[in-house]
Amino acid sequence: MNIQIGHDAALIESKKKLISGTYLHNAWYVAAWADELADGKVLGRTFLNEPVVLYRQGDGTVVALDERCPHRFAPLSMGQVLDGNRIQCPYHGLEFDGTGACVLNPHGNKRISPRLRVKSYPVIEKHNAIWIWMGDKTPDPPRFRTSR
Q1: Which secondary structure element, helix H or strand E, spans residue 18, and what is its range?
Q2: pLDDT digits (tens, 9 = 90+) for 45-85
């Protein structure tokens, strides 16, 4: 009888964790529908309590970066895509490439500190959806069904 009560308590606790927002980080999640992300458009979303900005590069490749500029934490989703490959922070104009590296500091001595970088997330586009990997491990190769 005690085993059953302990088992029920563990089950209830695991359900509480799921309801409270505990999710798997090392998994693929749908970030957006492909048609939501037109060329030049910037899209801000939150996944697993982490704000992310999505945009397309000039060749159509989707980029996902940490939403906050490392300088003053301005939301990059309020910025704009420049030359099809970089996103510009709306606050001081710092520009970041698809890897999250700062590639332009338009102020002062124009020096770029190695700390001026944002996290980038692996993304793929498949079946009219954009998928994002939020984990810290190497992404598993996605396995999508191609036919029924």
Answers
A1: helix 2-19
A2: 999 999 999 999 999 999 999 999 998 889 999 999 999 89
Element (H, E) at 14: helix 2-19
Quote the tokens at residue 119. Answer: 């996290």
For residue 45, give Cα distances in angstroms to 6, 32, 64, 106: 39, 9, 10, 27
| Distant-in-sequence contacts of 41-44, Cβ < 8 A, 24+ apart | 41/81, 42/76, 42/77, 42/78, 42/79, 42/80, 42/81, 42/87, 43/77, 44/75, 44/76, 44/77, 44/78
Cα 27 to the center of its chain, rounded Å: 13
Q: What backbone phi and psi angles, to 5 degrees, belong to 27? A: -160, 160
Paired residues of 87 in beta bridges: 81, 96
> Which pTM does this prediction carry?
0.80
